[in-house]
């Protein structure tokens, strides 16, 4: 399947100074920056693992000194306390929060992806989520990048889940600037009164996605995002203008269970798996063999 539409390339800011390429914006796509957008390619198989890990740790330190970090930190710790409270009120055991990160991008060549990875590490710390309980997947990861992620202590998934991960316990999903189909698939898989409240999502604002897409296409192709808009709570996270390519349009999306329980049963009936047959520019990479 053809992938990497121009806007996606725009997210890949290089910091290595290798081969640059101007990218163009797709009609209706999110504006990330007014500055010239660039992407680049390089051989990632020769990645210096130690140096890359050091660079990521430096970025973590840099981000933790940013004025906007405390507000993101609240989001990380709130995800944890929300689930601790739920455990208490429901009389069940308090379950440890886990994390799933899709679509981080090639962090050894992209400044945006490196900053997003550093932010993920900070959020895990804020939410007291053990590194091994954070699973990461992006088909763009090189062998070297997977080694870096393992060195950091994270769990690298080997299967393309297409975002269809069922939250069986409280889960923080971190999907930065990902294709709409990834969010839609995630919502489809968790579309029930039982599972949606277990989902805390840090990623693109659903409202922003809708505003940037032709309404007829949005409701046709992304039914679950469309319906989620009236069920979820969305809290925008701050982003300094300097880091607009990295953290723009990010929100914390949650599904308070009280509201879901009051909805008619029809909300949860007939849940066809998304097919995207009409999507001319599907923004995600699908599994090679479709079931
Ligand atoms: C627009 S890029 C965003 C990259 C980075 N987060 C950023 O903001 O620069 C979307 C990312 O989603 C990844 N992606 C595509 N299909 C995916 C899938 N099935 N599962 C996980 N990630 C996927 C792509 O490889 C790409 O890195």
Which keywords apply here?
291 residues, Rossmann fold, binds S-adenosylmethionine, SRR1-like
Can you walk through the features of this model?
- Belongs to the SRR1 family.
- This is SRR1-like domain-containing protein.
- It holds the Pfam family SRR1.
- The chain has 291 residues and is of the alpha/beta class.
- It has one domain: Rossmann fold (3-Layer(aba) Sandwich).
- It is 37% helix and 13% strand.
- It has eleven helices and nine strands.
- The strands form two sheets. Strands 5-4-3-6-7-9-8 form a seven-stranded mixed sheet.
- Strand 4, helix 5 and strand 5 form a beta-alpha-beta unit.
- Helix 2 packs across helix 4.
- The longest helix has 21 residues.
- It is globular and about 55 Å long.
- The N terminus is likely disordered.
- The chain binds S-adenosylmethionine.
- S-adenosylmethionine binds next to helix 4.
- The site of S-adenosylmethionine has 24 residues, from helix 4.
